[in-house]
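User: I'll paste a sequence; please echo it back and then give the predicted structure.

Assistant: Echoing your sequence first, then the prediction.
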Amino acid sequence: MSETLTPVPDGSIVVGVDGSEGAALALEWAVAHAGLTNRPVTLVHGWDSIPSVWLDQAGVDHAALQAEIKAAAAEVVATAAARVAELDPEVEVVQVVRHEDARALLAGFSADAAVTVLGSRGRGPISALMLGSVSSAVARHGRGPVVVVRPGGPKPGEGAGVLVAVDGHDGTAPVVAAAFENASLRGMPLTVLHCTFDARVAVGGQVTAELRAQAEEEAELVIAEATSGLSEKYPDVKVTPRAVFGHVEQELLEAADGADLVVVGHRQRNPIASALLGSISRSFLEQARGAVMVVPED
């Protein structure tokens, strides 16, 4: 297959493929999700040109190298398509190979995708980083839900349930709605986590009965507001509210252990927060195990 301008179907499950182990995990998750939602899977691979000055210095034939890169890219996508057929032959597959930066390509496709799925590491020159450049960039700039599949988690559908954290600020409705929808799709329970931070506890103080009562009361109100109307829309989803004390990042990591899917929000309205992905979302993605869905907030 040569470079293709194949249109991407609206509402498809877009997955970035590059032949890496991380991409293989992402593909497995995407195919399982496609089976649950009856949506096609769009396999996407973007490739860049090597700067010509380097090629000139090395005496490399530009055209021949470009042809080799393009052929290798097509082979990566074809191999991924064959893997989809092995995992679920009923899933429709669309193959896309473009001479374009993978980060920009996938972020652009995310606007019309049901979800964009990525591995946490690829084959690029900075693949040794905990969170790869492509997954980090697409999670940061994606215009729809982005799932980053981290190693070490349960296989799709074999986790303990879906987890979402709420903090009471405006804009989290799409995040909580996505958590309910995915719990319903999987026939799994949903844990709604609210973390209370208290400086006295952070420096080693005790969680007194009074503090715990206050935290539980606050969590009850925040969770009730966040889930309002959704329990009625998804009556099949068993919801467990959970109030915890401490640092949000650490508490979320502990609660997420063994979860089938963790849903977090990304605040896009603040340009600084958008550039950093949000300290909690970014830090959590760096350390989480399994599938993490990053949903743009209103």
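The chain has two domains: 13-150, 162-292. Residues 162-292 form a domain with the Rossmann fold fold (CATH 3.40.50.12370).
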